[in-house]
Amino acid sequence: MEKPILVLNGPNLNLLGQREPDIYGHDTLADIEKAVTTVASARGHTIDFRQSNLEGELVDWVQWGRENACGLIVNAGAYSHTSIALLDALNAITVPIVEVHLSNIFRREDFRNHSYVSLAAGGVICGLGAKGYELAVLALADQLATVE
Ligand code: DQA
After folding, report:
1. What's the CA gap between 85 and 87, in Å, rounded?
2. How far apart are CA 130 and CA 18, in angstroms?
3. Residues of the chain with pLDDT > 90: what percent?
4. Ligand 1 atom 12: the closest Cα is on which residue?
5. What is the Å distance from ligand 1's center to 148 Cα?
6. Do 36 and 130 contact (CB within 8 A), yes or no?
7. Percent of the chain having pLDDT more than 70?
8. FRET partner for 88 with CA separation of 20 to 30 A, picked from 72, 98, 114, 138?
9. Do 66 and 88 contact (CB within 8 A), yes or no?
10. How far apart are the first and last CA of the chain?
11. What positions carry a catalytic annotation?
12. Is the pLDDT assigned to residue 148 strictly greater than 80?
């Protein structure tokens, strides 16, 4: 069976829709999962969509993705700005990686301007809200079509 695109969501993203909607929008994580699944399926891909508040669990899932995913979309939430462990895990994987943030992290507090995940990602989409996840799927699907 074809390997899925793994979509990893970090801490507090389970609260999307309720959490600071002026910054993160009104879509819930379930809404985003539905939207990316539809976009992926139109391009012949499946999605494995996960969220955790735990750094180690995200690291475990990235490691799982080394063998079991065809590409990775990561919104690591606040761990983007702090987690060298996540960066190391991402650097150990060879499938294409796209980093997503709902908000424009460069227009916010200084501590959000740096992302460890960016050091491992082929591309970064931020500031486009939930749409960014769909664009990430399209970008990955294009990349995967050229390597397949
Ligand atoms: C976020 C931006 C991060 O700075 C923040 O900690 C989040 C969400 C985003 O999607 O905009 O939790 O990753």
Report:
1. 5
2. 14
3. 97
4. 77
5. 32
6. no
7. 98
8. 138
9. no
10. 15
11. 24, 101
12. no
